[in-house]
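Possible regression after last week's pipeline update?

I re-ran a chain I had predicted before the update to compare outputs. Posting the input and the new output here so someone can diff against the archived version. Not blocking, just want to make sure nothing changed silently.
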Amino acid sequence: MGIDEDLVRDAMERTTTDLPPLPDLAGAARAQGRRRKARARAAMGGAVLAVAALGVAGGLALPGGGGADGAQGAAGVGVAAAPPDAAKPQPPVHLEPTPGETPMSALPPAERARQENFQNQAVGVLQGLLPEALGTLQRTDLHVYLYQAAKDGKTFTVVFSVRPSGSGAADKPCLEIKGQTCAKATLPDGTEVHAATAPVNSGTVTESRVFFHYGNSDVRLTVNPHDASNTSAPVTKEQLLEVAKAPAFLDLVKDADRQPVQEKQKTVPLG
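New output (post-update):
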């Protein structure tokens, strides 16, 4: 008995029609491959981070780090030396006291540290506000109000004083006499600020200064000439007025007025 091929074909077609479609094996394989690659990348990234962490830890654990041996971390990863701290305060200029003069070194340690901290703040502020022609500003170790600026071999003495007056009276206004020229400005709180450029040293050179009364203190910023070269102070009274109006400068003044770094101004009675 022969088999009817048409019946067999029809039966097979009906059977396969009822079956669900075959899964996309290629798509699943691709997805699984992508997941494996992602896990491999993550593992590689973790390994790189671990090596970097070991390198940093090795650099911190090894002192020096500047030589051929110190330049390698614990895992053999090179660690760059940290750049120098540009904001680190510079050492003071040493000035010998005259007989009877008390230098800052004679102060109690805590008070000396407080005054030096104020000086360092003042240097940072004034260096950014005074003109570049004045040069590099440094504090001195003689008095809290005394600084020096140097450029091209010339040294200019700078006085920044916030001294308690105790009287509450305003400074005398600037007078344009004997070659002195004046300028003035008003701070946002109404404080009147005076500035002057005046001839000194027999009138051959000039100094510039700005002065005003703030709170309970007399404030003065003076730039003196360089006597040896007969060079006038390289700053104008107008420039000093701009310094006095700067918020950073006024913050210094406010701090010194609240917590004085100078002794109260003494008044010598007449008669």
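Follow-up from reviewer: compared with the archived run. Residues 22-31, 37-86 have pLDDT under 50 and may be disordered. Marking as no regression found.
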